[in-house]
């Protein structure tokens, strides 16, 4: 089995700062869109043994590295807030958003 | 929930060509190491709705795109074959391989 450790790092950071990112909508679809977009802007760190995730996480204890990820989350929150694709937004459900380009 | 569509694309490609990649060891650890390394060299394509994976997969029907991924798999098969970290290789189990740099 393989795991991209950046997924969990980004999810944890998002959970911590979600309320301060100025998202217009915080439904599960919009939250997932922010996470997916931010991860698409972040080099992946796949590993083959889940119990070794700490080796990668240790690199992100560094404040500068975390700030870089947080900036990505803020940028992606703005993109999704400016053009949301959730049901509340009224966009046709079968429309193809930026993630699938 | 979020998914990196490249994971399934790479796994499918690996399943198809595994026997022709010249891997010295094909244990599950070595196979996972090849996949993890190859995905670390590939820009992720996260999506927020699994049923939309086809939009991303459609881009990789293109032969040139698939060839690029196959070249990455071949390079990573060589890296893992040259320096395997599985039990058979005799490397100490707690050694830290290239994936956790």
Task: Give a verbal description of the structure.
- Two copies of one chain form a homodimer.
- Chain A has 101 residues and is mainly alpha-helical.
- Chain A contains four helices and two strands.
- Chain A has a two-stranded antiparallel ribbon with strand order 1-2.
- The two termini of chain A are 28 Å apart.
- The A-B interface holds A 1-2, 4, 7, 29, 32-33, 35-37, 39-40, 42-49, 52, 55-56, 96, 99-100 and B 1-2, 4, 7, 29, 32-33, 35-37, 39-40, 42-49, 52, 55-56, 96, 99-100.
Distance between the termini of chain A: 28 Å
Global outline of chain A? globular
Amount of beta strand of chain A: under 5%
Strand order of the largest sheet of chain A: 1-2
Oligomeric form? homodimer
Radius of gyration of chain A: 15 Å
DSSP E strands of chain A, number: 2
> Could you give a short account of the major beta sheet of chain A?
2 strands, antiparallel
List the uncertain runs of chain A: none
Task: Count structural domains of chain A.
Answer: 1
Query: Which structural class matches the secondary elements of chain A?
Result: mainly alpha
Chain-averaged pLDDT of chain A: 91
Protein name (chains A, B): Competence protein ComFB
State the gist of this model.
Chains A, B: It holds the Pfam family ComFB. 2 copies of one chain form a homodimer. The first copy, chain A, is mainly alpha-helical.
SSE blueprint:
Two copies of one chain form a homodimer.
Chain A: E1 3-4, H1 5-17, H2 28-40, E2 46-47, H3 53-59, H4 63-82
Antiparallel strand pairs in A: 1-2
Helix pairs in contact in A: 1-4, 2-4
């Amino acid at each position: 089995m393989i795991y991209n450790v950046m997924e969990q790092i980004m999810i944890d950071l998002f959970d911590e700062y979600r309320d301060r990112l100025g998202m217009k909508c915080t439904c599960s679809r919009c939250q997932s869109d922010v996470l997916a977009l931010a991860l698409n802007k972040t080099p992946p760190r796949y590993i083959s043994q889940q119990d070794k995730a700490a080796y990668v996480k240790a690199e992100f204890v560094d404040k500068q590295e975390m700030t870089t990820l947080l900036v990505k989350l803020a940028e992606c929150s703005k993109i999704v807030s400016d053009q949301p694709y959730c049901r509340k937004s009224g966009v046709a459900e079968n429309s193809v958003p930026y993630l699938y380009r």
